[in-house]
Write a structure and sequence with these properties.
Blueprint lengths: L2 E7 L2 E6 H21 L5 H32 L4 E7 L2 E6 L6 H28 L5 H21 L7 H14 L2 H28 L3 H31 L4 H4 L6 E2 L5 H12 L3 E6 L2 E7 H5 L11 H4 L1 E2 L12 H11 L3 E6 L2 E7 H15 L1
Parallel strand pairs: 2-3, 5-6
Antiparallel strand pairs: 1-2, 3-4, 6-7, 7-8, 9-10
This protein binds zinc ion.
Amino acid sequence: MQSFRLGRILGIPVGVSSSWFIIFILITISFSTQFAGLHPDWTRAQHLAFGIATSLLFFASVLLHELGHSVVALHYGIPVKSITLFIFGGVAQIAREPGRPAHEFNIALAGPLTSAALGTFFYTVGFLTRFNLEGVSSLGEWLGSINFALALFNLIPGFPLDGGRVLRAVVWKFTGSFERATNIAAGSGQLFAYGFIVFGGWKALTGDFFGGLWIGFIGWFLLNAAQTSTAQVSFRRALKGVTAGDVMAHEYLRVPGSLSVAELVEHHLLRSGARCALITDGERFRGLLTLHEIKKVPREDWESTSLQSIMVPEESLVKVGAGTSVSQVLQVMIEGNIGQVPVVEEGRLLGIVGRDRLLALVETRLELKA
Ligand SMILES: [Zn+2]
């Protein structure tokens, strides 16, 4: 999904997805219309101004909800990669799953608690200004109820909603199994998702077409998310107990760094179809070269360019040890968006793990163990 960076808060990149702009406009129009109905004495400019202000404060509230999760995650030493606002709200992307049920519980609960606190704040503002500042009071009441609605909606006990994560933390604590907990929480998430779809469909057919459609969409979105998390768990289960050393390929192209690009292409890549070469100096591993680096060199310079001058040097490569679990290797690949990871021990190259290799492994294991 295309997303636009807004800046950083607490060191976390914050952005909005392109879908967000659509929802921002729709919500602004909706708020302005509500204000027009409630305060017919205002001018149209006032309706619009309050509509925009409510919209902005609404999204600021969603952002604060996500920051609530993020602050607790950071407290437990889990990095937060980004916060993105999109059509259905916000998402704080944490770098990895919490390692303990209590951590998951607290991270999940921090969001709804933030929303409830914001709700109380806005209601108080609305209450205090009710006699002298009609507009502000109206706005405070709106945002108060929106934030409480946000807290309650997120507490629905179906994964991936916050309530589902709380449920997962509790089941995890009592069963000791993260997998089982995820499956139960995701199952409950699917149940609620179907509930939303049915309810939305019913509403759409009985008069409230757009409201119903919207609820149906939320259900569909939740259903997808719940199914994805179940799939991720079975993926992780399929990879359990396998290490980089088990799955790494030993047959890879290794060449000395003094070779020219032309020689590599002519004699190796074009003959074997290999897409990457490992640069070694005797037993020592020096670096890695993929088609990506080669294509950056103009063709007329291939003769005169040595591999070591364009390779990604060993020091700046992401590497793993033979004992690294395959799920961790996969995580590294996803995080760095890389297709292959060298397996290195004490500077010696043992092999290389490629994404295709991992996928083949998952397929085999799912087929034979299912
Ligand atoms: Zn949340």
